[in-house]
């Protein structure tokens, strides 16, 4: 019988989930400090994250709307096995930290008056946030809470009442 050892990431997650998640969130909130740069792409909602240069250059494509990233952490969970035992894919630090990284990058570009990079990234970010809001509000319509359902019924009956 062969016993396969769990992947190091999975082992670290299983051994001390609390610490693992704390470190994960810590890294996600400090992408700029860790040397990540971000730029828009030609595809809606898709961002290019880069770190390092030359041989050490790493590029990841992140789509926060789809919740996807091309990094090994995310891909391994989707293609091989998730870290969690219930099969839920734990978002990578790039997905979790994208918002802060973009905001910090835009602030720096504005301070440097780098309009050539600022405006396309800003427009891409605004469109992405609008799409996230649109999808979120559609989910709320699909799964209204009892309170929201009641309010929606009340406003509908008001409209019907005045339409006589
Ligand atoms: Zn990632």
What does this entry look like structurally?
The chain is an alpha+beta fold and 164 residues long. It has one domain (8-141). The protein is built from six helices and four strands. The protein has helices spanning 8-15, 17-28, 72-79, 93-111, 115-142, 146-162; strands spanning 36-40, 47-51, 58-63, 68-69. The protein has a four-stranded antiparallel β-sheet with strand order 1-2-3-4. The longest helix is centred in the C-terminal third of the chain and has 28 residues, at 115-142. The radius of gyration is 21 Å and the shape is flat. The N and C termini lie far apart (77 Å). Residues 159-164 have low confidence and may be disordered. Bound molecules: zinc ion. Residues 60, 69, 71, 73-74, 92, 94 line the site of zinc ion.
Low-confidence residue ranges: 159-164
The domain tally reads 1
User: Mean of residue pLDDT?
Assistant: 87
Number of DSSP strand runs: 4
Oligomer classification? single chain
The ordered H/E elements are HHEEEEHHHH
Cofactors, ions, other ligands: zinc ion
Large-scale geometry: flat
Structural class: alpha+beta
Reported for the largest beta sheet, the result is:
4 strands, antiparallel
Through-space gap between termini:
77 Å
Q: Which bin fits the share of residues in helices? A: 55-70%
Number of helices: 6
Strand order, sheet with most strands: 1-2-3-4
Strand content: 5-15%
Cα gyration radius (Å): 21 Å
Q: What descriptors fit this protein?
A:
6 helices; 11% strand; 4-stranded antiparallel sheet; alpha+beta; single chain; binds zinc ion; 164 residues; flat
